[in-house]
Amino acid sequence: MILYPAIDLKDGQAVRLYKGEMEKATVFHDRPAEQAKAFEAAGCEWLHLVDLNGAFAGEPVNGAAVEAILAETSVPAQLGGGIRDMETIAMWIEKGIARVILGTVAVENPDLVREAARAFPGKVAVGIDARKGMVATKGWAEETNVTATDLARSFEDAGVAAIIYTDINRDGAMQGPNIEETAALAHAVSIPVIASGGVSSLDDLRALKSCGAPLNGAISGRALYDGALDLAEALTVLKG
Question: Is 150 part of the annotated catalytic residue set?
């Protein structure tokens, strides 16, 4: 399993939200590129970047911060938030993003996901963010009547590289991931699944690793910033 340290970008800073609420943002670093370098120095193999403002605006907002991270680190990075057309997808891949994450458009324009996955093999992931199993879009502000499992299954033949599954009610809450739902989703599809939301301890990582589902990895943010989770130890647990 891969550990993906998360850098959520709001107004050019690295922040963490509490259960997806923008007004409940805690700033952890005013130079996100420095944070990215610290994660790389600790041994991470990937970075998980989210343009929070972009998710609400529907277009990139924190582009300068993302580009600074790309310029100052050498590990691959995946990016979500405000990526809703082929032009933006191509732009980010050309700038060096290893994998774009499509969330809102996966619900609203699934054909775009398929087109992008064909155009950029291995570089397109689907972000599925859910409350009580139902998908939420547009920065988690709008809830749909689509289940996470149904949405994931709809992309089985699309060639997407991964599904990033976030339980919104666990995100930033330091309450542990929703292992049961994550494992069920991973069993329901053949696409690699990355767990997100609430990963806050070595025990959480051990539980995900031993859940019986072939998870690709886990994303952690607040726990790494708060010191509840040591990145070097976490990497050792997942590799062991």
Answer: no
Which is catalytic among the residues 8, 167, 171, 204?
A: 8
Q: Where are the domains of the chain?
A: 2-239
Amino acid (one-letter) located at 202: L
Whole-angstrom distance, CA of residue 142 vs CA of residue 110: 17
Segment 78-95, tens digit of pLDDT: 999 999 999 999 999 999
Q: State pTM to two decimals.
A: 0.94
Q: How far apart are CA 84 and CA 86, in angstroms?
A: 7
What is the 3-state secondary structure of 129-168?
EEECCEEEECCCCEEEEEEHHHHHHCCCCCCCCEEEEEEH
Mark whether 30 is an active-site residue: no
Cα torsion through 133, 223, 225, 17, rounded to 10: 30
Catalytic hit among 30, 51, 129, 171: 129
CATH tag, 2-239? 3.20.20.70
CA angle 99–101–103, rounded 5-degree value: 170
